[in-house]
Each structure stands twice: as C-alpha cells, then as structure tokens.
C-alpha cells in the first residue's frame, strides 16, 4: 500500500510564482531570475511532498501559465504567427497565453476556457490543416531531470492524448487527422523519459469522465490501441478525475496499462465499477482524499470503502490534483476548533499517510483523533433560515409580468438609445486601491478616510463614464476584493481564510470563502455605494451583485448539507439585497452568475436532474419579487452555453452579457436558432488580454453581432469586468467601444430614416 498525489498547487505558499511572473512581465525581473524562482519553487514542493512521506510524486505539474498550453507547445500545436515572432521561447509562450502587442507584432491570446467543472482555466489549443504535430519541447524532460538532480524520483505528468484532442479546437481539420502523429509524439516522450530513468508516466484523462460513446469512444480506442503498442518500458498510469468512467471502465481495465486512477468523490459510480471487478495485474490509484474541497477526510468511511474494493494493488491518492485547494492551513489564524476541520493541500498529504497507517494499524492515534472529530456536530442550524425556506411556494420563484411586457415597461421608463453601452462592473483595481483596502483592513486608516477614498474613486470614474458617453454606468466595485468574498463577509455562515489562494488562470488567483454554516444576510451589502453612485449622476447606475449559484460555486461548499440547500439559503440572502437596492432607487440590477456553467455536471444526462433543476430556480428566487420596471441583468464569463440556452432563458433576467470575443461570437448562431428572448450584450472585446482593440475592430464585431441579433436586443459591453486591467488600457478600450457603438448607432439611425 503506497500513497500518491496527482498534482500540487504550483503558485507557491505565498504565491511566489504569481509575483515573480508579474514582475517579469513588468520587466522588473530577467528571464533567468524568473526561471530560477520557478526552479526553487518546484524543488521546494517536491521536497515537501517527499518529506510528508508520499511515495508517488508528480513532476511537470508545474506551469508558468497552464499545462494544456504546455502540452500544445511541447507538441508544436502553435499558430504560425506566434512561431515566427521574434521573441524568446518564454515570451512566445506568454504571447500565446496573454496575447502580444509590441514591436514584433500584434497577436491575440488563445481562447481560454474553464477546466471541466472547476474555476481553473486552460488555454484552448488550435489545430489547423497545416499543424504538424511532433515533439519539439523539452519541459517535461527538463523538470524530470531537475527533480532527479534534487534526488527525487518523480512520475512525469502530461495531459493525455484523448483529453488533449478533446479540449482543442479544429479549423478545417479534425481530431482523427492528427492521431497518428500525436501518438508518435507521445511515444517519443515515453522513449526519452524512459532513457532518462523514469519508471512511470501519468496521462491525465479527465475527458473520460464525460459521456464517451459513439465517435468519441472510437477516438479514445484508436488512440490508446496505437499508443500502448510502444511504451518504451514505461509504466503508464491513466489518471481520471472529476467524475466516474462508466462508459469506458471495461475498456480501461483491459488496456495494457499498469495503473488506473479513479475519482471516488465526484465519481458517483466509481466504487460500484471497481466492485464489479478490477484486474489483479493493475494498480488502482484510488482518489479518496477530496482534491477539490477543504474539509478533513472521514477516515473511518474511507477505510470502510477500501474494504469493499476487490483490489490487490492499491495506491491511496487524491480525487484530483491539489491545484484546486490552497497550500496550507498552517498560515491561517482560525481558532483550533475550526482549523481542525480543514485540510488544504499540505494537510492532505498527511491525510494520505494517515490513511496508509490506519490500514495497517487500526490503533494508530490519527484514526482515533479523526473519529473524535466527526463524533460531534460541527455547527448548529439557524432556525430562521429553515423557517423561511419552509414557507417558499412555487410562486416564490416566478417573476411577473412576463419578459416581453417588462421590456416595454422598462423601455418607457429608461429611454435608452439603440445599442446601449455599459460595462460589466469593475474598474481597474490599481495598487493604490488594493493597498488602501489592505490598510483599512489592518485598521491603519479610519472608516471615514477609507470611505472618502472609495467615494472619490467612484466620483472620478462616474465622471469619466459620463464624459465618454456610456449609457448605463457602474460604480466600479472599488470596495470589493472579489465578487464572492465581499458578499460572504456580509453573510452569516461564512468563514474566510487569509491565504487560501487557488489558481484561477495564469497568475490570477481566487480566495474562495468557506461555507461553514447556514447562510443569512447580516446587513445590507452594496446599498451604500450603489446609492452613493446613483446620487452623483442623472444617468442610470447599475447595481452590482453576485448571484447565489456563483457564490456557492466559488466557495468551498459544505459537505454536510446539499449544495441545493446551501444555494437556496444564499438566494434568500441576495433577494434581501435586491429588494433593498430597489427600495433605494436603483433601477437596474446586475446579478452576476459568472460561475453558473462551470458546475454543470460533466455528463449531459445529469445536467438538469443534478444541477439546473435547482440552480435556475435559485437565481429566479433572487429577483422574483422585484417590480416590472426594475431591469435585471445577469453576466456570465463564458460563451459556451449553446447547449443550455433554454436554461439561461429560464433564469428570466431581462438582459444578459457574456464573453464572446475570444470564441469568435459562435454563440450568436445558437441564440438565433433557439429564438433567444433576452436582450444580449455579447462582449465585443477580450478583457483578459492587455491589448487595446481599435475602434475599427470593435465596429466590425458589432456588425457581426447585428447580423445575428435584432438591433433592439443588443447591448454593447466588454466581455467581463475590468478590474484586472491597467487604467490606460481599460480607458482606451472602453472609449473605443463607445465610439464604435455610437458610429454603428448613427449608421442604423441613418438607415432607419
Ligand atoms: N461584476 C463583476 C466585475 O465586473 C463581474 C466579474 C466576473 O464576471 N467575473 O468584476
Ligand atoms: Zn465575467
């Protein structure tokens, strides 16, 4: 019985990777200094994992931005325009990740998408008919060697070929065209690693937990039949996570591989599949320690599960990479009776070895301690919350009158022009903003000084919005660190870590709060600053809230009550806030559901029954009680909702803005086909990249939108909030946006005359 992990947080205990990378981008560090910092971090992590007593230690789980992008560059799946950029390979890599605008060219970043049902994002590799797949990179070998030089034998990890092809986009070509070359390239990796002395390789294949039938199953079989014909003596671990592999379990256990990694947390059928039989000559990497949540593992339950598995060779592992949890509880200052319930990445290493010890010795003290922890109830229920939920009726979830009627009422009320312009909510969170907030938090400045600071920022940015002619203004969200923690701070039932950062994309992290108990609104959340902003201007100011599904999805959820129940509790708290804003004169309220899609079950057959059937009503509950003339907006940070358009429609908001520019506005065809009724603001430029779109570029995009969506229904906005951008680029981009919208509006009006 040994232990293993799938991957470890790469950003570092104090987010060293983030800070060093950003310094490099600002030319405050040389490439050598950045490489050295990355090296130090990798070695530190390997040592930490080793010292914790873990047997299977991964390498190449590190990345400067994203491991899918690493795999694409390893295999030469890079657009020609980037390959020929006169930059170092590191800078070309960052150009793919973030776009590049400078002396050597103007390159858009690769599209970025959510990594399965997580808040991590990967970059989408682009295949074209001219793509020549071959092994051209060395990262996986370099990092293996680096670990060896540090005295540590590792198991190199790479995105598996089926997942890699499934996540990529194909232009004038298809996945099958590349199978032969891709398999050869993976085999070249095997050969080289084997020559270097590696024993195992881990192929991450989370794609296998989705529906894998028909053509997809054929592709999977075709790849693996060829791939495993030449392994160069390496042992192959096919690692899955985020669900169970019910469609291909039988295929997998008959493959000539040595290890199979399965997720026992999100994989509802995993235990049952393994119980039906597991080959004696293979090793099961049992993902029993939850890699996605921060609660302690219930050892007795895990040990009981092991007893039911007919497995001869067992490795105790995590359910997915520890990338999705923060580094360590040690740097938190929760009271001990709270802290004892948490296990972050470092503590999970200890859980794996505890479980290992408990299996051989049931008298091990760790097991007794764990049993004592779970013997007591953790929290007391909040009777008011339960009472309120019990009184909900079907009508509590329905807004009156219907959408079309509301649209008329609202137009009569607001008199907005054609193609109204707005932004998604936040303006640049400059160092000054962040520093002032931090000083306030540490009580270094008074409430009055802080309020003055925020108030001045709001006024200044309102003035700018008026000057450039935006139609619906926002206050800018300067008072918020992020869109969930800020809300959680005003809610009962929430806890916050100080250092619980989790990577979201590249150098960006989030610090998900922890839902500790029943949730209720303690006091108004946004009313003060929204009404302050509205008092400064005669234009409409949009209130800005985070929706219940996103609050839940970007928190670490409870495991003792259902997510559905937690979400309804949050929805009621946000409903209180919506009604408070309305009472205080806010006429447009945006309820962001940036994360609604990311928790969509990976198997399509579960979408409604396991998720949308409660997530959509929870959103409706939030706004069902507002007046017809109050306009409800929602925002989503992605555009892949082609398959759930009816559900989006069913949210029954009045307007939706979403990301579209990085995905070439593909969503518009689907909206047209499905007769989408809501007004839409497809993001007209990509805010995740520092490049500034020109007026001409945005004008073209608006024209493309108007080909698909009736002009009365179109809003013009960026594709997300601007908080991560610098002031200069944010202002220039939005100025270009308003100029473009005004130009097209003039064309339309001229045509109409
Ligand atoms: N209103 C939020 C903002 O602008 C929305 C952020 C998001 O969608 N992630 O920052
Ligand atoms: Zn967004």
CATH architectural designation of the domain at 383-752: Alpha-Beta Barrel
Distance between the termini: 79 Å
Which molecules are bound in this entry?
glutamine, zinc ion
Poorly predicted regions are: none
Round the mean pLDDT to the nearest integer and report it. Answer: 96
Would you give the CATH topology of the domain at 383-752?
Answer: TIM Barrel
* Oligomeric state of the chains in view: single chain
Largest sheet: 8 strands, parallel
Beta fraction: 5-15%
Your description of this structure?
By secondary structure, this protein is of the alpha/beta class. The chain has a domain at about 385-750: TIM Barrel (Alpha-Beta Barrel), CATH 3.20.20.210. α11 links the parallel β12 and β13. It has an 8-stranded parallel beta sheet. The protein has a 6-stranded parallel beta sheet with strand order 15-20-21-22-23-24. Strands 3-4 form a two-stranded antiparallel ribbon. The relative contact order is 0.09. The protein contains 28 helices and 24 strands. It is globular, with a radius of gyration of 26 Å. It binds glutamine and zinc ion. Glutamine binds near residues 594 and 721.
Tell me briefly what this model is.
Helices cover 42% and strands 14% of the residues. With 753 residues, the protein is an alpha/beta fold.
How does the SSE layout of this entry go?
Elements: E1 2-3, H1 16-25, H2 31-51, E2 58-59, H3 67-74, H4 80-83, H5 89-98, E3 100-102, E4 105-107, E5 112-114, E6 121-123, E7 126-128, H6 139-149, E8 155-159, H7 161-167, E9 169-171, H8 179-196, E10 200-204, H9 214-227, E11 235-239, H10 249-254, E12 259-263, H11 270-275, E13 283-289, H12 299-307, E14 313-318, H13 336-339, H14 345-360, H15 365-375, H16 383-390, H17 403-414, H18 431-441, H19 447-468, E15 472-473, H20 485-488, E16 491-495, E17 502-505, E18 508-510, E19 514-521, H21 527-535, E20 540-546, H22 548-553, H23 563-583, E21 588-592, H24 607-623, E22 631-636, H25 645-650, E23 655-658, H26 667-673, E24 679-682, H27 695-708, H28 727-752
The structure holds glutamine and zinc ion.
């Amino acid at each position: 019985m040994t232990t293993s992990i799938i991957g470890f947080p790469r950003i570092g205990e104090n987010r060293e990777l983030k800070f060093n990378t950003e310094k490099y981008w600002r030319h405050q560090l040389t490439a050598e200094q950045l490489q050295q910092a990355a090296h130090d971090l990798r070695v530190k992590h390997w040592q930490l994992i080793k010292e914790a007593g873990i047997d299977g230690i991964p390498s190449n789980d590190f990345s400067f931005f994203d491991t899918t992008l690493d795999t694409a560059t390893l295999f030469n799946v890079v657009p020609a325009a980037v390959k020929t950029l006169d930059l170092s390979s590191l800078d070309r890599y960052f150009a793919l990740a973030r776009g590049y605008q400078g002396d050597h060219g103007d390159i858009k970043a690769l599209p970025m998408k959510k990594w399965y049902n997580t808040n991590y994002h990967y970059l989408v590799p682009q295949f074209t008919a001219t793509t020549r797949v071959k092994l051209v990179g060395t990262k996986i070998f370099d990092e293996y060697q680096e670990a060896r030089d540090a005295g540590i034998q590792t198991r190199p990890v790479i995105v598996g070929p089926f997942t890699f092809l499934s996540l990529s986009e194909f232009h004038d070509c298809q996945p099958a065209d590349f199978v032969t070359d891709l398999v050869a390239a993976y085999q070249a990796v095997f050969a080289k690693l084997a020559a270097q002395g590696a024993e195992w390789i881990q192929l991450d294949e989370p794609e296998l937990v989705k529906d894998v039938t028909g053509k997809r199953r054929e592709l999977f079989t075709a790849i693996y039949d060829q791939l495993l014909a030449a392994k160069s003596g390496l042992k192959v671990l096919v690692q899955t996570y985020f669900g169970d592999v019910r469609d291909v379990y039988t295929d997998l256990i008959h493959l000539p591989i040595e290890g199979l990694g399965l997720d026992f947390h999100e994989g509802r059928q995993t235990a049952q599949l393994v119980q039906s039989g597991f080959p004696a000559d293979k090793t099961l990497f049992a993902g029993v320690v939850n890699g996605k949540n921060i609660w302690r593992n219930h050892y007795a339950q895990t040990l009981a599960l092991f007893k039911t598995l007919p497995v001869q060779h067992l490795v105790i592992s995590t359910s997915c990479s520890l990338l999705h949890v923060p580094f360590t509880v040690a740097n938190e200052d929760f009271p001990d009776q709270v802290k004892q319930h948490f296990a972050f990445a470092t503590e999970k290493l200890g859980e794996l070895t505890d479980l290992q010890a408990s299996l051989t010795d049931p008298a091990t003290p760790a097991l007794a301690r764990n049993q004592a922890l779970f013997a007591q109830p953790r929290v007391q229920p909040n009777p008011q919350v339960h009472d309120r939920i019990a009184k909900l009726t079907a009508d509590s979830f329905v807004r009156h009158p219907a959408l079309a009627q509301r649209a008329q009422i609202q137009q009569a009320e607001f008199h907005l022009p054609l193609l109204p312009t707005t932004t998604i909510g936040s303006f640049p969170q400059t160092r000054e903003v962040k520093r002032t907030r931090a000083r306030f938090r540490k009580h270094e400045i008074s409430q009055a000084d802080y309020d003055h600071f925020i108030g001045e920022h709001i006024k200044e940015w309102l003035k700018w919005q008026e000057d450039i002619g935006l139609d619906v203004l926002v206050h800018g969200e300067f008072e918020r660190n992020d869109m969930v923690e800020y809300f959680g701070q005003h809610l009962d039932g929430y806890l916050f870590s100080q250092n619980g950062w989790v990577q979201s994309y590249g150098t960006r992290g989030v610090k998900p709060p922890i839902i500790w108990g029943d949730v209720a609104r303690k006091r108004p959340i946004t009313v003060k600053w929204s009404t302050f902003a509205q008092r400064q201007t005669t234009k409409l100011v949009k209130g800005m809230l985070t929706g219940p599904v996103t609050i839940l999805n970007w928190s670490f959820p409870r495991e003792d009550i259902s997510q559905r129940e937690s979400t309804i509790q949050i929805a009621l708290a946000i409903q209180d806030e919506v009604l408070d804003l309305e009472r205080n004169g806010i006429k447009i309220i945006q309820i962001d559901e940036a994360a609604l899609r990311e928790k969509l079950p990976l198997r399509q057959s579960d979408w409604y029954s396991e998720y949308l059937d409660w997530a959509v009503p929870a959103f409706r509950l939030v706004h069902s009680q507002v007046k017809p003339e109050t306009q409800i907006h929602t925002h989503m940070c992605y555009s892949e909702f082609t398959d759930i358009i009816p559900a989006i429609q069913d949210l029954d908001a009045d307007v939706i803005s979403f990301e579209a520019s990085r995905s070439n506005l593909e969503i518009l065809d689907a909206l047209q086909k499905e007769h989408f009724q809501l007004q839409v603001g497809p993001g007209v430029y990509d805010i995740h990249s520092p490049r500034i779109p020109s007026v001409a570029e945005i004008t073209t995009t608006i024209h493309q939108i108007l080909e698909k969506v009736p002009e009365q229904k179109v809003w013009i906005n960026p594709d997300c909030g601007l908080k991560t951008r610098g002031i200069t680029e944010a202002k220039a981009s939005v100025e270009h946006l308003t100029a473009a919208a005004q130009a097209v509006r003039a064309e339309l009006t001229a045509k109409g005359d």
